[in-house]
Amino acid sequence: MMFYGFVFMARNWTKDKPRLKYRLEKLKGQHSGPLSGSQGLDPMWLMIFPEGTNLSANTRKGSAKWAKTQGIEDLKHVLLPRSTGLLFCLQELKGTVDWVYDCTTAYEGVPQGGYAQDYFTLRSTYLQGRPPKSVNMYWRRFPTSSIPIDDPKEFEKWLNQLWLEKEALLEYYVLNGRFPADEGQDLKKGAAAPKGAGYIETEVKLAHWYEIGSIFVVLAVYALFANVLTKVWNLVNYGNFAGAAGVAARGVS
């Protein structure tokens, strides 16, 4: 995960803040060359979960406790978000990111009051052949210019309102088995529905069985590079590729 740019958190803001700032500075750094993105910025996706953890029986209790201490409405389909991390990211990336994409996800096959992590595990999905029948997503996007990132209190209100809307979307899913359809924008009477309106249903699968190996390409390159460096080090310091073990073996023989 480290090789793929994951930012590991200690769940302690005093420790996490400088680490996160360092990684965000890299993301917004200007570059030049044929592979650079717009404005000299590298293309990137930064994914963040403001809830901070999975929805479960234990985290549900913690969210309810947090709602009580903050004097805000508790939710049943989602955990209440924490604004600190997301606000910090948006402030640090200000001027380099145009849109914030919001995704609300629901898994088919989870009974009301249940939790997806209890039904769809790595074991059930890959060893027992019981993955979710479908993964439903409801996407929205917001221009960063419309988000009040310069006022922490207003930003927290904005984020809490967003989560209330997520709650309503998930309640709709529970009652109807799918999210509400997107009717598109600026749809005139009699005109054809704009592209993207309604539902999009697709199957996610590998084009070729060997594509799964691409996951390990980065690790393989690092392993090969480390192996070459190790052999060079042993050759320089011990006169052989085996290192100290090779010297000891020669001494015994």
What would you note in describing this structure?
With 253 residues, this protein is mainly α. The protein contains eight helices and two strands; from the N terminus they run H-H-H-E-H-H-E-H-H-H. Strands 1-2 form a two-stranded antiparallel ribbon. Helix 1 packs parallel to helix 3. The two termini are 44 Å apart.
Write the layout of secondary structure elements.
Elements: H1 13-27, H2 57-70, H3 83-92, E1 99-107, H4 116-119, H5 122-127, E2 135-143, H6 152-176, H7 217-238, H8 244-252
Antiparallel strand pairs: 1-2
Helix pairs in contact: 1-3
Widest sheet, order of strands: 1-2
The global form is: globular
Q: Indicate the structural class.
A: mainly alpha
Output the helix-strand order. HHHEHHEHHH
Radius of gyration over all CA atoms, rounded: 25 Å
**Can you summarize the main beta sheet?**
2 strands, antiparallel
DSSP strand content = 5-15%
- Terminal-residue CA separation: 44 Å
Helix content: 40-55%
Given as residue ranges, the uncertain stretches (5+ residues, pLDDT < 50) are: none
- The chain-level mean pLDDT equals 84
Number of strands: 2
Number of helices: 8
